[in-house]
Amino acid sequence: MKFGVLVQEGPYHHQSSDSAYQFVKAAMDKGHEIVGVFFYHDGVINSTKLTDPQQDDRHIQKRWSEIAEKGVDLVVCIAAAKRRGINDDVLAPGFRISGLGQLTEMAIKADRFVSFGA
Amino acid sequence: MSEPTKMMFMMRKAPYGTIYSFEGLEAVLVMGAYEQDISLLFVDDGVYAIKKGMDTSPLGIKDFSPTFRVLDGYDIDKLYIDKESMEARGLTLDDFVVEPEVLDKEQIAKLMEEQDVVFPF
Amino acid sequence: MLHLVNKSPYSSSSLDSCLKFATKGAPIILFEDAIYGAMAGTSLESKMIEVMKDHPVYAIKEDLMARGVNNIIPGVREIDYTGFVELVEQHRPCTWS
User: Fold this and answer.
1) Are B96 and B52 a contacting pair, CB within 8 Å?
2) Helix boundaries (H) for chain C
3) N or C: at which end does chain B have fewer Cβ atoms within 10 angstroms?
4) How far is C55 from chain B (nearest CA, A)?
C-alpha cells in the first residue's frame, strides 16, 4: 500500500516526530511504499542540520535523513519553514523545502494518510 | 481522470493560542486549487476560528478570520460545524463570519466515514 | 475509520471528541500520552470498559513500556508499531490530538 505521513510537531518537544518515525519504519519493514513525509507547523524544525542532541539520546534529524536514504521524500513546508527560520542553508540531507501542493499530492497519491501531532 | 480525493479539514483548535487553525487554513487555500473534494469541519475549540468581531491589532497578530469568507472563491463551499460544540460555547450561526451547515454528531460521523483523508488542524 | 488518540484523557478532550464521532465498531488506538487511559485501577476504568463494548481499543506497547504502565484494563489489546501499521492497512485513519 501507499502511505503518506504528516508531522505537525517539532522534535524533542513533542513525541509526534518519534511516533511518525516508528510508524514509517514499521510500514517500510512491511513492504509498504511511503509516498512522502510532510513536515508542517513546528514539524519543519525536524529538518535543521544544526540539530545537536546529547550523545546518549536519539538524533531525530539523522533518523529522518536515514529514512530519506531509503528513497523516502521528506518535504518541509516552505511557508511554515520561513516563519521559523528554516531555509536551505540549514537544511539537513534528505529533506527538501517545497509548497503545500506537495502535501496535497501526497494525500491524493496515498492509499492511507496518517497525521502525527497537533 | 480518477475520482477526486475526499479530504476533510477538521479544525479543532482555537485561533491565536496556537497556530494550527491559521496554518490549517493556509493548507486549505492551496488544496482548493487541486480540484479535489474538500470540506471544512469546525468542532471543539475550532469553532472559535470563525467567530465574528475579532480584533487582534493590540497583539499584532494577523487576524485570519476574514480569509474564511473568501473560501468560496477557491471552490471550497462545504463548511460544516458541530452543533454540540457550537451550543456548548454559547454560540449561534449569527456569531460567525461564515455560515457553515450545522450538523449533529451522527451526521458528522457519517461524513467522516466518507472521507479518504482527514487532516487535523 | 481508525481513530488515533495521542493525548492523556485526564488533560484533553481528544478521546471524548473521538468517541463522540466514532461509529460503532470503529477501532481506537491509544498512543503517546493517551495510553494512560488504558491503565487499570483508575477513575476512567469503568468508562473504558463501556467504550470497549462498542470499539476495539488498542494501546501501543512501546508507549506503555516507556511510561511504566504494565497494569492495563483487561480487554485493551497491546500492539507494537507493526500492529499499528496493520490496523492502518485495514482502515483509513483519523487523528485526534
Assistant:
1) yes
2) 14-21, 45-54, 61-66, 81-90
3) N
4) 14
Sheet holding A2-7, edge to edge: A95-98, A74-77, A33-39, A2-7, A112-116
Residue in A80, A101, A115 closest to B23 by CB: A80
Eight-class DSSP state of C39: B
> Rounded to 5, what percent of chain B is helix, strand, coil?
40, 20, 40
Name the residue of chain C whose CA is nearest to B115's CA: C92
Active site residue A88: no
Per DSSP, what are the bridge partners of residue A113? A4
pLDDT tens for chain A, 118 residues long, are 999 999 999 999 999 999 999 999 999 999 999 999 999 999 999 999 999 999 999 999 999 999 999 999 999 999 999 999 999 999 999 999 999 999 999 999 999 999 999 7
Question: CA of C2 to nearest chain B CA: how many angstroms apart?
Answer: 10
Round to whole Å and give the CA distance between A37 and A102. 10
Per-domain residue ranges for chain A? 2-49+59-116
pLDDT single digits (tens) C37-47 = 999 999 999 99
Residue to substitute from C94, C96, C97, interface B, most B β-carbons within 10 A: C94
| pLDDT tens, residue by residue, B10-27 | 999 999 999 999 999 999
Domains and CATH numbers, chain B: 6-120 (3.40.1260.10)
| CATH no., domain C2-96 | 3.40.1260.10
Q: Is C96 in Cβ contact with B120 (below 8 Å)?
A: yes
Task: Give the nearest partner residue to C93 out of A8, A15, A114, using CB atoms.
Answer: A114
Tell me which of A35, A45, A72, A77 is the catalytic residue. A77
Choose, out of C7, C17, C54, C97, the residue to mutate when testing the contact with B (most B CBs < 10 Å). C17
CATH node for A2-49+59-116: 3.40.1260.10
